[in-house]
Every structure is written in structure tokens, then in C-alpha cells.
Write a structure and sequence with these properties.
Layout lengths: L3 H17 L7 H8 L4 H25 L5 H65 L1 H26 L5 H10 L6 H25 L5 H21 L6 H19 L1
Helix pairs in contact: 1-8, 2-3, 2-9, 3-7, 3-8, 4-5, 4-6, 4-7, 4-9, 5-6, 5-7
Length: about 260
């Protein structure tokens, strides 16, 4: 049965994802926990597949506009996918049972970290640009390894909490590619990177029967058209004001989740 409240939540999150690349996990997981009172494991499991399927729609639109940096995506995947698979493997061996008690706190902590990352993104961009211009050869030599290391960190966060692929990923790319990445290109690259990452991370939860199918369908009914609209509008204006507003919301949601 379709639930209108879930559909509305999916539409809100989908629009934000399409516009900024942020929110698939950072926004939806706290909504499921705090607004709907969903069990943390079910929230993480369902949100991973919600994010993956929603971002598939956005990725096609962004790729058609030629905004995806596939070299950077591949560098991120080299770190994120193996780590996510490792975490999923640990969960399937029984670690899932031990983590239930502190999962909500872990989600809250990553959400707060995500909000802080969004707020300090301009400062990180300035720092990255200064390093890139001051020591160009050294900076470029380190980019591939640092990008894969950033991907590994994202893989761990996403597999454990479903949060981080969009917001933290975009902040990391701002620092690592300060001259190469335009705002629209960061959104597109970040979205494409997140799709297989969410799927790999979500496999363990899916096989464990933790994905809520009816809830997922209700969420997608709202998110699919909304993410398409957000993606079409992404290149027309800066989403910085929306990121600041989202960061404030995430700080409040993360703090409430922790407490």
C-alpha cells in the first residue's frame, strides 16, 4: 500500500539530491528515524536502495549533459567499493547484531560531520586551491591515491550508516580537485559514484531481509520525478544557499539523533 507521507518525504529528498547531490542518506535516514520512528537497521537498509535507485535517474540526466568526470569516479570506486564490500561481509558474519545498539548514535555522528563539512566547504576549497597553485606537480601526483583513500572513507560510512556519499563526497572533491571541478560537475560525479556504492553496501541488508519494500516503493514514487526536476535545474543556479540551509537542518537532526 502506498503511503503518502513517505512519498512526500521521498519527493523532498529527491529534489535536494538532484539539485545538490546531497541528501540521499544524510537527509532521508534522519527523516526515517526521527519523523517516522523506523528501526535503525531498516532505515539504513531501505535508504541505501532508495538512494541508489533515485540517483540512477539523476545520473542519466547529468551524464547526458557531459558533467560526469569518469576518471575521478573510478578513483573513488577503487577505495569505496572494496571497503563497502568488506563491511557488508562483516555484517553478514554477525557483526550486525552487535552494532544495533549504537547504530543510531553512529548515524547521528556522521550526519553532524556531514553538516560541518557542508559549512566549511568554501574554506576547504580555498585551502585546496592554494595547495594546487602553490605546489602543482606534488599536488597532482598525490590526487589519485588521496581520491581512493577518500573513497575508502566514504565506503565505510555509507555501508555502516547509509550517510556520507553525497555530502562528504562533494566536500572531499572540492578539496582534491579545486580547479578541475565546477559545482555542477561535482554534483554529477558524486551522484554517479554513489550508485554502485549504495548497491554494494545495501546487498547485505537486502539478503538479511531488512529492506522495507512497500516503504521503498512509496519513497521512490516521490523521489523519481523530483530528482529529475532537481537535476534539470542543477546547472541553472548555485545550490550553495540550499546547502547552508540543509547543513543547519542536518545539525539539528544529527544532534537530536545523538541525544
Amino acid at each position: 500500500m502506498i503511503d503518502g507521507a513517505y512519498t512526500l518525504a521521498g519527493a523532498l529528498t529527491g529534489f535536494v539530491v538532484g539539485l545538490t547531490g546531497v541528501g540521499g542518506g544524510a537527509l532521508m535516514t534522519p527523516i526515517l528515524l526521527l519523523v517516522f520512528g523506523i528501526n535503525p537497521l531498516t532505515a539504513v537498509a531501505t535508504d541505501l536502495w532508495f538512494a541508489a535507485l533515485t540517483k540512477l535517474v539523476a545520473a542519466r540526466i547529468h551524464n547526458n549533459h557531459g558533467q560526469v568526470d569518469w576518471q575521478v569516479v573510478k578513483r573513488l570506486w577503487r577505495g569505496s567499493l572494496p571497503v563497502a564490500a568488506l563491511v557488508v561481509g562483516l555484517l553478514s558474519l554477525g557483526a550486525r547484531i552487535q552494532k544495533i545498539g549504537w547504530l543510531t548514535q553512529a548515524i547521528g555522528g556522521v550526519v553532524v560531520l556531514t553538516a560541518i563539512g557542508l559549512l566549511v566547504a568554501p574554506a576547504l576549497l580555498r585551502k585546496g586551491r592554494a595547495l594546487r597553485l602553490g605546489q602543482p606537480a606534488r599536488f597532482k601526483a598525490k590526487q589519485p591515491a588521496l581520491t581512493s583513500l577518500a573513497g575508502a572513507a566514504l565506503g565505510f560510512c555509507v555501508a555502516l550508516t547509509s550517510v556520507g556519499a553525497g555530502a562528504l563526497g562533494s566536500v572531499m572533491l572540492l578539496y582534491l580537485y579545486p580547479l578541475r571541478m565546477t559545482p555542477h560537475r561535482i554534483v554529477a560525479t558524486d551522484i554517479v559514484h554513489a550508485i554502485p556504492l549504495a548497491m554494494v553496501a545495501g546487498l547485505g541488508y537486502l539478503f538479511a531481509g531488512l529492506v522495507d519494500g512497500p516503504m521503498l516503493i512509496s519513497l521512490l514514487l516521490g523521489s523519481v520525478p523530483a530528482v529529475a526536476l532537481g537535476s534539470l535545474l542543477a546547472g541553472r543556479f548555485s545550490g550553495r544557499w540550499l546547502q547552508i540551509a540543509l547543513a543547519v537542518v542536518l545539525l539539528i537532526a544529527g544532534a537530536k539523533t545523538l541525544l
